[in-house]
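Q: Hi! First time doing this. I have a protein sequence and I read that you can turn it into a structure. Is that right? Here it is:
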Amino acid sequence: MTLLRVIDRDGKEHQVEGRTGLKVMETLRELDYGVAAICGGMCSCATCHVYVDPDWQARLPAPMSDERELLNELSQCQDNSRLSCQIEFTPELDGLRVTIAPDE
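A: Yes, that's right. Below is the predicted 3D structure, encoded as structure tokens:
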């Protein structure tokens, strides 16, 4: 089993199964403490905003321009902000740790 570590908005860490080949958003939206993911992964709403643990940032592909534009519009944007709909979970990301960002 591959592991995805998720810190919810209350600061509690959960360990869930990371599903290889799916976007991280697809796992997060099924959780009671997860993300809304209103656009369904089309990179158009930013309701799947997460903070990637600094130890994992360099292991992810750089965000594309449309993701960067959406993130820059968020008041809660940080250097480690990503849209979870743009992160494909791969075996190399086993143990990935993300924090669900506050609602905008």
